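Subject: sequence -> structure tokens, single chain

Hey, anyone have a minute? Need the predicted structure for the following. Not urgent.
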Amino acid sequence: MPLTLTPEYVVPLGKGHYRSAFDCGNDDLNRFLKQQARQDAEKHVAVPFVLLEPGRRAVRGFYTLSASIIPLDELPPDMMKKLPRYGQLPVTLLGRLAVDQTAKGQGVGEFLLIDALRRCLEGAQQIGAMAAIVDAKDEQAESFYRHFDFLPFQLTPRRLFLPMRQIAQLFSGPRLASGTQNS
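Reply:
Had a minute. Here:
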């Protein structure tokens, strides 16, 4: 049965959410959700967001967000020229993103990424962040993020970023999050 992919079903991880059956095919990500995610949330290290099935508490996907910094010299030279000459710049880290195998092929990964980017943009409007960053765990993950225009850092393999300006454009384009058209 297809999942309902609307923002109201993506919520911060809670104690009552059913995580034990979650299986994305990656033992590290499964273990994180089942054993570490709540602790990270309680210690304010990362905020895990989960996609729930309507009317159920079963987690079908998740991602985490946290504040981070990047060295200025990791950015492409043309971008460095346009930014303040601080040694480090604030960013939002999309630390983990995973989809349960029962939800694969339903656009859940893309939906969770868009939801995470929306939250990154909202957060950046309150607390500065010049980009969202990810550390792709493998070539498949890197390809996924590059499909959504994430750019590579100069010095760190598989670390990618999407400038906040581009994220803002995603949400001001012809289609709004509600699905309506701009006039």
